[in-house]
From TrEMBL, chains A, B:
The keyword Lyase does not apply. Pathway: Protein modification; peptidyl-diphthamide biosynthesis. Keywords: 4Fe-4S, Iron, Iron-sulfur, Metal-binding, S-adenosyl-L-methionine, Transferase. GO terms for molecular function: 2-(3-amino-3-carboxypropyl)histidine synthase activity; 4 iron, 4 sulfur cluster binding; metal ion binding. Its EC number is 2.5.1.108. It comes from the Archaea. This is 2-(3-amino-3-carboxypropyl)histidine synthase.
Length: 336, 336
């Protein structure tokens, strides 16, 4: 059984900024983390406890750096919102009304020699010499060790220091011409899939949590075929389009909404603008019951149509996919 | 099949305020309604269309007058948020930063002679002479017709003009000493149950949508037994309590949170304050994974523990129930 102290020991959490908050005399603090990191609340609460500081724990999800519960911080009137697990989100229009401190969380390296050996063998078997290596902020320390290992084993490494986000892979895909493959250090399929959707090169994954090496390209091909089918379905579904707009501070992208609306109107589409806070199948059903449109385009987060809403009974597209439909582009456009 | 025009004809929607908005020159408008009324978006959109007004449709739920998507209105920068289906919500601390226009929606009377006859027979069979009659704002016009019918049939009527809310029944229960029973005009069990939980008198329901008369008292007794069991379970579960605080503008009740925290600390409880936006089983699991507390108390909306979270694997109490636990009160306390 995993006890709390063990859990805290699995991660390096940068607490310096939090101790500085205590010194500065903060009185009310809201802690927030993605669900997977919420158990780490207990690892940082000790910084504030017993010092007359009122501490609140957010139960709300954190689907990305774009999704922090600013409205909760405002309602509670806290001095600072502390978010665990993502770096500060830079985005045109993202100007939170509360002070937010972003606390990086790093998984401690726990990579076996066996997996490293498996990785080098696999890359060699695929004829890979030049390889990019990328990860989210969480796997940054593991990534460094693996980069050094590959480098000392004769691979030509392009380590990508800017972390991956669910909607940001262009900084890795732009290395396509310089590498034979991309290596992603990640648990699960979410980030490897995002990269594989936009890169022409094979995406190899080292999953440090399960201790295995695998290729994401096949799964990405399946997803890509599904997405192209959605675009085709959307093309023959009709011209009444619901443009879904996110109100989460990092998900409201007015320039994109205006661009899509303008281009859609030019092509004869009728545009209905739908606002959303947390979009899921239930919310989409509620709005489709009301408006009964032909297709929906999600401008808040491009992962929603791909990962969460692909079973909806009408086509739900990303902004990039909708632009492909409007302009006839054949190369898959992601993210946007 | 029910067509859109038919749907609009089932309700009287007070559009005057909306035409006045058009005259005043509003440029950006957000429409919002509870899911059940979202199909009425189409019945009011015509007021704004073709006049150069930018119209947005909210996909977010509206669980009550306390739950309007102010954050969406703010993100979109609309001139006005129009909410269909509830009257303005008066609540200490409810000061939205955007202009909100509340548009009442009234179900058009469509009550058959047969059901009216069934009602009078049923009330007489129960020996009822004095009876209160109440409803939400939606059934107000139906309620008036039924009140007149009962009055002209010799019943002593106390018509309650202030509408029912999911958290507000005291204005009806306060008539307990003046009536033999309470009559609620409502579809479904939600409002009859709320009243029956706090009244000592039988609660009779006329459901105008299904055309039937029934007694809510038996179902309320079942719910009441369940709630008392939850309080008992909570009493023996431990002293680490999660006080869940709602950030929705009408659900943040600081006075109640302070009162509960103070009384809990006095009784030796350890209080953890949890913030929430939309609370459901998934969010409760996420926070329980993090904090692993003994019991939870929901201060945002007293219906959540009763209607939505009663299957959670730990006791989840309303504020009133938690006070019963703390003070040893035996009479069921609702709402709070």
């Amino acid at each position: 059984m995993l006890f709390m102290e063990d859990l805290c020991n699995l991660y390096d959490i940068e607490l310096d900024a939090l101790y500085r908050l205590v010194e500065k005399g903060v009185k009310r603090v809201l802690l927030h983390a993605p669900d997977g990191f919420k158990p780490l609340y207990k690892c940082v609460a000790g910084v504030f406890e017993g010092r007359g500081i009122e501490l609140f724990f957010s139960s709300s999800p954190g689907y990305g750096a774009c999704d922090v519960p600013v409205e909760e911080a405002e309602a509670l009137g806290v001095d600072v919102l502390i978010h665990l697990g993502h770096l500060e989100y830079f985005h045109h229009g993202f100007k939170p009304g509360v002070s937010i401190v972003y606390v990086p969380v790093y998984a401690r390296p726990m990579i076996s020699e066996g997996v490293l050996g498996e990785l080098t063998s696999y890359l060699r078997s695929q004829g890979v010499i030049g390889v990019s290596i990328s990860s989210t902020i969480v796997e940054e320390k593991i990534r460094r060790i693996i980069a050094e290992h590959l480098s000392s084993n004769g691979f030509r490494i392009h380590e990508v220091h800017n972390p991956l986000l669910g909607c940001l892979y262009t900084h890795v895909a732009s290395l396509d011409n310089k590498v034979d493959a991309h290596l992603v250090i990640a648990g699960g399929i979410f980030h490897p899939l995002g990269l594989a959707l936009v890169s022409r090169k094979p995406v190899v994954v080292l999953d440090p949590y399960r201790g295995r090496v695998w290729s994401a390209s096949e799964e990405a091909q399946k997803t890509l075929r599904k997405r192209l089918l959605k675009i085709y379905e959307a093309r023959i579904s009709g011209v009444r389009v619901g443009l879904i707009i996110g109100s989460r501070l990092g998900q409201y992208r007015s320039w994109l909404i205006e661009k899509l609306e303008r281009e859609a109107l030019e092509k004869g589409y009728r545009v209905y603008k739908v606002s959303s806070t947390y979009l899921n199948i239930e919310r989409l059903i509620a709005i489709d019951n009301a408006l009964n449109l032909d297709i929906y385009v999600v401008t808040s987060c491009p992962r929603l149509p791909i990962d969460d809403l692909d079973d909806f009974y009408k086509p739900v597209l990303t902004p990039g996919e909708f632009l492909m439909l409007l302009t006839g582009l054949e190369k898959y456009v992601y993210p946007w």
